[in-house]
Amino acid sequence: MRKPLDKKSMPCNKPRKSPNPNKKRVVKACANGKEKIIHFGASGYGHNYSPGARKSFKARHNCSSATNKLTAKYWACKNLWAGPGGSKASCPKGRKCKK
């Protein structure tokens, strides 16, 4: 069983590893006087395998329109898939990935 997050002790807009086993990251999003805990990124998948995969994700999820900090889309685009390069991490076990 996971321990609950203490919303008061979390800093605003600083992503960290999620205690939820199904998600990669968690952030306390703060915008326009509102606060919201957002879990984002599926933990069963890796990310940033290549610049091509990064480009495809950004196009598929329309990352150029992600401007609301209170959405998981914004944080996935900004934190997990931002930047031009790809990760050197290998593909998760049991999954076929393009090299």
Write the topology of this structure.
Elements: E1 16-17, E2 23-31, E3 34-42, H1 51-60, H2 72-80
Antiparallel strand pairs: 1-2, 2-3
Note down, in words, how this protein is organized.
This protein has 99 residues and is of the alpha+beta class. The protein has helices at 51-60, 72-80; strands at 16-17, 23-31, 34-42. The chain has a three-stranded antiparallel beta sheet, covered by helices on one side. The longest helix has 10 residues, at 51-60. The model has no long low-confidence stretch (mean pLDDT 83).
Strand order of the largest sheet: 1-2-3
Strand-residue fraction? 15-25%
What gap, in angstroms, lies between the N and C termini?
36 Å
Question: Major beta sheet, specifics?
Answer: 3 strands, antiparallel
Q: Please identify the structural class as seen in this structure.
A: alpha+beta
Helix content: 10-25%
Name a few traits of the molecule.
99 residues, alpha+beta, three-stranded antiparallel beta sheet, 2 helices
